Amino acid sequence: MFSNEEEKLMKYNQKLEQLALSEDKLDEAIVAGFRKAKFDKKKRKKWWLNAAVVAALVFLFFTSIRVSPAFANYIAEIPGMEKIVELIRHDKGIMTAIEHDYYEPIEVSEKKNGMEIVIDGAIVDEHGLVLFYTINSEQKQTEIMMENVVLKNRKGEEMEYGSASFGAPHYSEKGEKVFNGTIEYFFEKPFAERELQLEIELKGDTYILPFTLKEEIKAKKTYEINQTVTIEGQKIHLVEATVYPLRVGVHVKLDPNNTKKLLEFEDLRLVDGNGETWSKIKNGATRKILSEDEWIIYLQSNYFKEPSDLYLAFNKIQALDKENSSLVIDAEKEEIIEQPKGNKLRDLTVSTNEIRVNLYTEKEFPYGVFNEVVNGEGKKIDIDSSFWSGYRDEGYAVIGVQIPHLKSQPNPLTLELSFFPEWIHGEEKIRIK
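User: That's the sequence. What structure does it adopt?
Assistant: Structure tokens below.
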């Protein structure tokens, strides 16, 4: 299902050749967006632009417009243009926060041995902190990876958080001198600290970056829902939606008497009266598990939009029969004892520290499906890591877990499934405003 914006872009693309719009007029319209950008050539290399610029860029990418040389030269003067789009295009909440000037410049940096880390700015709300950073290098780098990223208060105490994303490794085949990214924290308790310090290890050096948050934090908005819906016999109670500038938390309770174990609300979304959509968070934590039957699911934020009508909608939920919702194996014999209906898990192999199995599906299913392993004595086993290989032409993906001292664990082993390619379907659209 396409969002309202995606549908419009497709229509623009289909009718592009019929448009009586000259290149000059098109360039003029898009350049107007760039001129609204928060960009100052006199300062350090800036890479932050507002949403008007991003909208223009995304329009260009989707419609493959051939721009004039004058316009190409104009955008070539802006450092990190493509990286900016890549950083924020996945999250409409962040884009609209920037568009509404809810972004605090920080501009704190430290330089060591030809490398510099800059904390450019932040977006903060009652439970979240997103930091935007730049790494500058005197020499071209093909690979940059930050390690041991720690957020502390000014007393030197590490901040407790519920989930965090510390910036993806940066790669460049040709080598680059400037890399941009984000560091995201979301907190279980209200975030009240204003004097902070970020410690980052890079290329063997430790960078200490103290900073202060000064801007006023916007308060959350809460929409009471308190409605129960039924999809294929499974009852779902929607409690409320709490809207923050960085994300929306939808509180969901599942009926413990449901016959199926619900795993994932794939397409839960907010929709306004015009069809504009705010879908699930693409990066970072997508949900918080309060209990087996009570979750908070995170969506992109519509905080800076004030639609007269707002709905919560979903059509597709991953679900398995409760009595058949795990993979049970004999690791010693390399045999599958029990699995969900359909025989989609096959070709089990067990090595010294690894359980590996093929998941057969008609289409790509890009999830690592295991989240917990229990041994034959009913004890949880520590998982070092889980993996998903990517979908292969033969119609399967290799999935599995790595477990220390696997061979010493008593059989059978039960691998609990957190995702699986089985669904229930419905047409739910609940008005919340």
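DSSP finds six helices and 27 strands in the chain.
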